[in-house]
Amino acid sequence: SHVAPLVPPVQVLVDGNFIHAVMSMKLGDAKDVVVKYLGAPSKLFTTRCVKEELRGMGKDLKEASFYARKLEEVKDGPDPPAPALDSIVAAVDGGNSERFIVCTQDDKLRKRLLADSPATPVVFCHTSGLQMEPPADAEGSGVASQREHGAGLTEEERNVLGQEEVVRGAAGVRTNVRYKKPKARGPNPLSVKKKVAKPPPRRSG
Fold this sequence. Notes:
Blueprint: E1 10-14, H1 16-24, H2 30-38, E2 42-46, H3 48-55, H4 62-69, E3 72-73, H5 84-91, E4 101-103, H6 107-116, E5 122-126, E6 129-133, H7 142-148, H8 155-161
Parallel strand pairs: 1-2, 1-4, 2-3, 4-5
Antiparallel strand pairs: 5-6
Helix pairs in contact: 1-4, 3-4, 3-5, 5-6
């Protein structure tokens, strides 16, 4: 793969809704949560557009805005009032030379990254912890390789990282240090009606 191995401190790019989610779920300091999950020293970054977006979102995101102001900004990229989403995409454009791991709750951003920067690992906040959406070309990538070698993970968690699909939004699924292996995505079992048993075939004669 063209993606270089991760070298601590791992560079992690966070957006406003990720910071807000960590706070809302009372998981602790965002940096501490990320470091614990990755099992490696990490440095958190954000963008000018993310900071500006949070400033304009009122008191509900005041704490997240204050936290974001303390983070180092990525170099270059668009200036406000460009959308925060575009600034994150720009930061990893061209092969993600800075080897950022992106932390976001934004499904639209995650889909953009999958399409435009498939080698970029994406982490999101899920119930009681963090979970990674493996990049499209995860084989040999920095995160996949490092975590395959057991950087702070159990064998069970390494199995989870090998899955192409990650369960999202299912209440009650633990995804922190000792989470259970999520099941493959499928229909909600509560919404699927049981099939009516077919009557036995009639005997001829």
